[in-house]
Amino acid sequence: MTMNRRRALGLGGAAxxxxxxxxxxxxxxxxxxxxxxxxxxxMAQELAPAGAQVTALVGADADAHVYxxxxxxxxxxxxxxxxxxxxxxxEGWIERMVKVSGYRGTLAVASQGIxxxxxxxxxxxPHAWQDLALARxxxxxxxxxxxLRWPQQRDEIARRGADYLARIxxxxxxxxxxxxxxxxxxxxxxxxxxxxxxxxxxYGVDFxxxxxxxxxxxxxxxxxxxxxxxxxxxxxxxxxxxxxxxxRLVERxxxxxxxxxxxxxxxxxxxxxxxxxxxxxxMIEHNARGLAAALQA
Length: 297
Ligand code: ZN
What we know:
CATH class of the largest domain: Alpha Beta
Shape: globular
Bound molecules: zinc ion
Distance between the termini: 44 Å
């Protein structure tokens, strides 16, 4: 992956300072971090030095798979002190966007070192943030990139990183408790796109989806018919809307399969600030609690 060659970990502090002379000034302005999507922006806000201005290119409830950069987003990228991306092919648009915008810094790749899931579809599954154990790796990678970029705040970055990892570990234990009460054969769920493979592998839930690892094309009639058959014949108990997708497909599958929609899962984006998934950790909690409730019903 060409993106990885530019990763923050590959560049020494001297090279970074040369690219960003302002960073070495005593009274440097608040760090400006641009994250490719909302989930990563929240993690970056938790892990960056206090006061950092973190923004997301693809915001709450929006679908990063079909994002089209605007000129204003390009300007934001060009002014960033550091850009963080998921990697694993999630941001198919980032290479070109970096080139067009003139951003000359590094791309910190949050999924660096993670072995991607292979499976039913072509390429790699990019949705690794859905497994809290892999989110640990995201956090470690981001902390390392921030410490390299802002070496004077290394201690603060390390402290914030340790605190965040402890919260990730605590939630991981809770998710296992919540889902642990559901008998294994009942843990089958339908969603609109195949975004929960890592979650399913980590916590023992089978996810079936009408669309693959991205949302570029409409689901085929055959895929939809297969899901309806699976609800009727194999007793799939729960079907969920995704916050980034048009709910009508899932509502139709639920109607024709004769099951109730279990709620909304947050797949590739957070909710707005007043919603139930305003942060990454709240998103995982909301999804896990919603799944456990629907699968026991
Ligand atoms: Zn996705």
